[in-house]
């Protein structure tokens, strides 16, 4: 089964972290990513630009409306994701717990809805 692991952390707090710490975390991310690639769990994943670059799109009465920034004000922002293959939720949780940002933010684990074709 596929799961989306959504990485949330506070952008303002992350910006305060010193360069050495961010470089260490980047190396941890590289090691984590390589490990799930080797184990066959990795399907896709990317880091996202800050929420200041986001555009929210809505369609109301046939008109497309756009707003700069994210839709919701939250303490933690979506910073990236991994799409993984795992045998069950427990396995997906074990993988999510190894994501470096789990120590400073949160990881939402959500199963992918599979449509019959």
Question: Overview of this structure, please?
Answer:
With about 120 residues, this protein is of the alpha+beta class. Helices cover about 30% and strands about 35% of the residues. The protein is built from three helices and six strands. The chain has helices at about 10-15, 20-40, 90-95; strands at about 1-10, 40-45, 55-60, 65-70, 75-85, 105-110. The strands form two sheets. It has a four-stranded antiparallel beta sheet with strand order 2-5-1-6. A two-stranded antiparallel sheet has the order 3-4. Strand 3 and strand 4 form a beta hairpin. The longest helix is centred in the N-terminal third of the chain and has 20 residues, at about 20-40. The protein is flat. The two termini are about 15 Å apart.
Layout of helices and strands, plus pairs?
Elements: E1 2-9, H1 11-15, H2 19-38, E2 42-47, E3 55-60, E4 63-68, E5 77-85, H3 89-97, E6 106-111
Antiparallel strand pairs: 1-5, 1-6, 2-5, 3-4
What is the molecular shape? flat
Overall strand count: 6
- Report low-confidence residues grouped into runs of 5 or more: none
Secondary-structure element order, N to C: EHHEEEEHE
> N-to-C terminal Cα separation, in Å?
16 Å
Mean pLDDT: 91
The biggest sheet, with number of strands, parallel, antiparallel or mixed sense and barrel status, is: 4 strands, antiparallel
Structural class, judged by helices and strands? Answer: alpha+beta
The count of helical stretches stands at: 3
């Amino acid at each position: 089964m596929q799961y989306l692991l959504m990485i949330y952390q506070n952008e303002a707090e992350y910006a305060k972290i010193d360069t050495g710490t961010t470089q260490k975390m980047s190396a941890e991310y590289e090691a984590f990513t390589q490990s799930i690639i080797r184990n066959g769990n990795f399907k896709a994943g990317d880091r996202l630009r800050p929420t200041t670059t986001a555009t929210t799109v809505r369609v109301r009465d046939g008109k497309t409306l756009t707003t700069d920034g994210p839709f919701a004000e939250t303490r933690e922002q979506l910073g990236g994701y991994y799409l993984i293959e795992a045998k069950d939720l427990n396995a997906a949780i074990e993988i999510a717990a190894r994501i470096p940002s789990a120590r400073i933010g949160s990881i939402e684990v959500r199963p992918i809805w599979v449509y019959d074709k």
